[in-house]
C-alpha cells in the first residue's frame, strides 16, 4: 500500500518554498488523517495539514481508495474526483482526466524503482507519480485564467508520500512558485 488511509496516520515534512525572484523560505508541515466525509455516496478520508509558516494555510484534502487506485475529491468541482495513484502501478502507465470547472486537463504518469533519501530516512522501491494539470482560477471580479500546475510525488511502500515537488505557474510565463516537501518522520498506526 503506497497511500495509507488509516485514521491517525501522521507524516512530518521539511518544506522549501521558492517564488521566482525570491529567497527560499523553509517551514515544517504535518499531514494527519483525521476523520471522513461522504460525497455523492462515496466515503473519503480527510487529510489535515498543519504548517509552521505564517500565512501558509493548506485546505483539507479528501481521498478514497477504490479498485482502480487512490482518488482525490476536487475542490471547486463538487462531486468530482481524479485518479492520483493507480492501485497496481506499472512503469510507464499513463492516464488522463478532468474535473470541470476546476481542472480542465490532467495527465499522470508512473515510474517504478525510484529511491528517496533525506536526512536519516531512505526508501527504495518507491513509485514516482508525475501529474500535470491545468487549474481554472477564478478572480474576485469574475474572470478566469488557466494556471499550469505540476506535481511530482514519490510514494514508499507501507509509508505513503515521502516527497512532493509542486511547481505552479504564476503571472506571465516567467513566474513560478516551487514547493519541495521531504519526509522527516511518520507514524502509521
Q: Could you list some keywords that capture this structure?
A:
12 strands, globular, about 190 residues, twelve-stranded antiparallel β-sheet, mainly beta
Structure description:
The chain is mainly beta and 189 residues long. The chain has one domain. 0% of the residues lie in helices and 67% in strands. The chain is built from no helices and twelve strands. It has strands at residues 10-19, 25-39, 42-51, 61-65, 69-73, 81-86, 94-99, 103-118, 121-138, 144-156, 160-169, 176-187. The chain has a twelve-stranded antiparallel beta sheet, with no helix packed on it. The radius of gyration is 16 Å and the shape is globular. The two termini are 14 Å apart.
**Which regions are unreliable across 5 or more consecutive residues at pLDDT < 50?**
none
Based on Cα principal axes, name the global outline.
globular
Overall helicity? under 10%
What order do the SSEs take from the amino end to the carboxyl end, as H and E?
Answer: EEEEEEEEEEEE
- First CA to last CA: what distance? 14 Å
How are the strands of the biggest sheet laid out side by side? 6-5-4-3-2-1-12-11-10-9-8-7
Question: How would you state the average pLDDT, rounded?
Answer: 89
Supply the number of helical segments. Answer: 0
The count of DSSP E runs of length 2 or more, i.e. the number of strands, is 12
Strand content: over 45%
Structural class: mainly beta
Radius of gyration: 16 Å
Main sheet: strands, sense, barrel: 12 strands, antiparallel
Indicate how many domains the architecture comprises: 1
Amino acid at each position: 500500500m503506497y497511500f495509507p488511509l488509516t485514521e491517525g496516520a501522521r507524516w512530518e515534512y521539511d518544506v522549501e518554498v521558492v517564488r521566482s525572484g525570491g529567497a527560499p523560505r523553509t517551514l515544517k508541515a504535518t499531514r494527519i488523517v483525521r476523520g471522513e466525509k461522504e460525497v455523492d455516496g462515496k466515503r473519503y478520508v480527510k487529510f489535515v495539514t498543519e504548517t509552521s509558516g505564517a500565512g501558509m494555510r493548506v485546505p483539507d484534502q479528501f481521498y478514497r481508495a477504490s479498485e482502480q487506485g487512490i482518488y482525490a475529491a476536487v475542490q471547486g468541482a463538487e462531486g468530482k474526483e481524479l485518479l492520483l495513484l493507480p492501485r497496481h502501478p506499472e512503469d510507464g502507465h499513463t492516464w488522463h482526466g478532468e474535473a470541470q470547472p476546476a481542472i480542465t486537463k490532467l495527465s499522470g504518469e508512473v515510474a517504478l524503482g525510484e529511491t528517496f533519501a533525506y536526512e536519516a530516512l531512505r526508501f527504495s522501491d518507491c513509485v514516482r507519480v508525475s501529474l500535470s494539470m491545468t487549474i481554472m482560477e477564478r478572480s474576485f471580479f469574475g474572470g478566469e485564467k488557466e494556471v499550469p500546475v505540476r506535481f511530482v510525488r514519490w510514494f514508499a511502500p507501507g509509508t505513503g508520500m515521502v516527497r512532493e515537488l509542486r511547481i505552479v505557474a504564476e503571472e506571465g510565463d516567467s513566474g513560478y512558485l516551487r514547493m519541495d516537501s521531504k519526509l522527516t518522520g511518520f507514524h502509521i498506526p
